[in-house]
Amino acid sequence: MKKYLFILMLSVSLFWGSQAKAAESPIASTKAIEALVDAFSFQTDGTIEVSVDKLTVDNIIIDGDSITNASNDITIGNITISALTNSDGIVFGSLGTAAKGINLSGIGLGVGDSFIFYNSNVKWSNVTADLWGMYSDYGFFPQYTNSPLFRNIGNVGLRSHTAGDVQLTADKGNIISSLVANLTNHLLGNKEEVGAWGGDGVSNGTTTITDVGGAAHGLSLAAGDLIHITDSTTSADEGNYRIVSDDGTNIVVNRALSGSDTDLEVTFYQDVILFGATDGTNGQRIMNYSHQDKPLQIGGDTLSAANAAMGSEDIVIGNHIEVKGLAFVSSSTFTFTTEGDITDPLPSTQLLLDGDNDTENDTIDLQDGEAAGQLLTLIAAADIDANDTVTINFADTTATNAPAVVFDKVGENAELEWTGTTWIVKSLQTSL
Fold this sequence. Notes:
Among the domains are: 2-52; 53-95, no CATH class; 331-429, Sandwich (Jelly Rolls). The protein contains two helices and 34 strands. It has helices at 2-24, 26-39; strands spanning 40-42, 48-50, 54-57, 60-63, 66-69, 74-76, 79-81, 90-92, 114-119, 122-125, 143-144, 147-148, 156-162, 165-170, 185-189, 195-203, 208-210, 226-231, 239-246, 251-253, 264-269, 272-276, 285-289, 296-298, 315-317, 331-335, 340-341, 350-354, 362-365, 374-382, 390-393, 405-407, 413-418, 423-429. The longest helix has 23 residues, at 2-24. It is elongated.
């Protein structure tokens, strides 16, 4: 019944349409009726199939496998395809609750095919399933000449805080290879930022900074973490700092800030390694920032328990080390004019002693070492002679079976080692 009702309605429509067309062109009217009749096909299951070679609605033309619009964008669902040369390309509207933006799982491409292709050198290839599961705060990572920026590392994020300062983080896996250009600082590690102060951090010309109003900051921070000050009224205070201590309110860093400002932009990181570009004077720097305040280990099959005296700013060599060429040990100078304590903790392994040349004999007091295995070389370096002797006193510490250590000539020296409980005098040269 419905079938015949539809035919009746169609016939009436065609009739009136043909009358209108007949006024314009009897031939066009006849062809239009023939085309409409041919377009409809009634099926035995009650459905109607419509088949046309070409359909034009306003400016949109459907012809074979193509949909074209010479002057406007075409929107299908939530996807807008631009027809203009300098427009925004393909624009996605709201996809609602969809879990996938573009699902390529059924396209049939295999190993060696390109999911996204620009040219032979810039493409997203399936050579090793690179880039699957990756995300970026500011865009997608392409693959260049079959050498991916990142390989098999799980989720990777890219975040830029200032021009040229990029953080790379991985939620899981290890970063095997990376290619990053034009960086000021490159952070490598397994953690994203753990907190930030958006322009209200406070400095007071010391090593201590606080959150706005001196309030508790509410962050899980510890000695060894990284603080990155990205903006401040005192521009000289911008840079990277290591946390020395934190009581939940006052954060003490490794060096003093020069300004007293209330607008610090600060970002906090944990368990990252910083690759620092040149400061224009002292070259490059690699620095470890450990939330456990542990040193950076180089070499070794596994991570080793570090000496208790070592912190995030220190380095552990995990196995043997060979030096090709010269090895240099930096020295510190301890200047004295009368009896006093030798600097504690010791500033270096090699200590140059500088007297006062006042024809008086002086005594200086050595303190405990920091950890077992600590070495110390004492060298009479200047203003020490028979009338200006210097005696190393062990009264403030322990020196088992130690001989008297008295220098009366420049060049005399002693080598000592701290066992964890006592100093051992390994060698003594006082007979020059």
